[in-house]
Each structure stands twice: as structure tokens, then as C-alpha cells.
Design brief:
The protein is mainly alpha-helical and 184 residues long. It contains 6 helices and 4 strands. The chain has one domain: Glutaredoxin (3-Layer(aba) Sandwich). α1 packs across α5. The protein is globular.
Length: 184
């Protein structure tokens, strides 16, 4: 999951593109969702063409190499998969979710891909890690006026729910429940 105005997505985009790159069993895609922190220059999408245009910018201006799928305006797929802005899923050929990380942690995802490809059990813990400040600042500036204030407004909740509560839940092996829509 990702969008052009999501600092976490932008900060992990390159490393995620390279996971499983030489293995023909691995396909990668990004589901383009709502703008995480819209601003004056990259506002929230008013219609599907605007959303598709932002997804195209992600490919053309940012050099995104993975397949980019664009969710509908209601966010149907995004909601079915939990509505987090930078979630990672590994889905097997049967369509079953075999790995889920509410927030993208590239090293944990890489370990999960490696375990799955090599038939080992998954024992990866995907802790929330903040993105690099330089990428966050660049992403929010690009989105334009209002983006940084949107980010700062959501920051206390993001910090408490993810860096504290979520990481403690993972540490003590109490993962969040999966939606019945994404389990097999």
C-alpha cells in the first residue's frame, strides 16, 4: 500500500523494489491508496483520474518499478486489507495472505520472503520503525502547504499507536487480529 504523499512509503520504496528481485517466483505490486498527507500541490483525489494521475507520477517522476494498481475512490481494497497507509502483504499463489505487516519494515519483509521461498516457518516480527526525517521533509514539501500540518496533527496518535502500543504487542507476541476478509 502506498501513495506519493506517504513519507514511510517513500522512505522504503527503493529497498522494497529490490526484495526477491532475482527470483521468478516473486511478483511485486503497489496498491495506490488515498494520499496519506495531502497538501496544496498534491491534494486528496477528487476523482479517479486524479488518483490515477498521482499513481502515474509515482512511476514517471519517482521511478517506481513495481506494478502499480490503483484502488477505487471508495478505497474498497484498502479497507478490506485494514486501511493502513503502508501495509505489506505476502499473498501466495492460492490467494491466501501468508504474511502481513501493518507498517512496512523492509528487513522483516525480506526475512519473510526468504523464509517462504525456502520453506521455513515465519518467525519474523515486523516492528514499526519511523522513516528518515530527510525523506519525510522532502515528501511533505512536495505535497505542498498543509501536508506538514496534516502529518504533525496525526503524529501523536501515530507515535502512541505504533511506536509504543504496536511494538509492545509484537514484543509480547500479541499480534493484531486479521480481518476475516484477508484470511484463508
Amino acid at each position: 500500500m502506498g501513495s506519493i504523499t506517504c513519507p514511510l512509503f517513500q522512505g522504503r520504496r527503493r529497498i522494497m523494489e529490490s526484495l526477491g528481485i532475482d527470483d521468478p517466483r516473486v511478483s511485486k505490486a503497489v496498491l495506490y491508496v488515498r494520499e496519506a498527507h495531502p497538501g496544496a500541490d498534491i491534494p486528496q483525489h477528487r476523482d479517479f483520474n486524479a488518483k490515477r494521475s498521482c499513481a502515474r507520477r509515482l512511476q514517471e517522476e519517482d521511478g517506481e518499478t513495481r506494478l502499480v494498481l490503483v484502488d477505487d475512490m471508495e478505497g474498497t481494497a484498502h479497507k478490506a486489507y485494514g486501511s493502513m497507509p503502508n501495509t505489506v502483504f505476502i499473498i501466495n499463489r492460492g490467494g491466501c495472505v501468508v504474511y502481513r505487516a501493518q507498517w512496512n519494515n523492509a528487513s522483516a519483509t525480506n526475512a519473510a520472503v526468504d523464509a517462504i521461498l525456502n520453506g521455513r516457518p515465519l518467525s519474523t516480527k515486523s516492528y514499526f520503525r519511523p522513516g528518515p526525517p530527510s525523506i519525510s521533509i522532502r515528501t511533505l514539501r512536495r505535497a505542498g502547504k498543509g501536508s506538514a500540518s496534516d502529518f504533525l496533527h496525526s503524529f501523536p496518535t501515530l507515535f502512541w499507536n505504533n511506536l509504543i502500543k504496536r511494538n509492545l504487542r509484537i514484543l509480547f507476541n500479541r499480534p493484531a487480529d486479521l480481518s476475516k476478509d484477508i484470511t484463508c
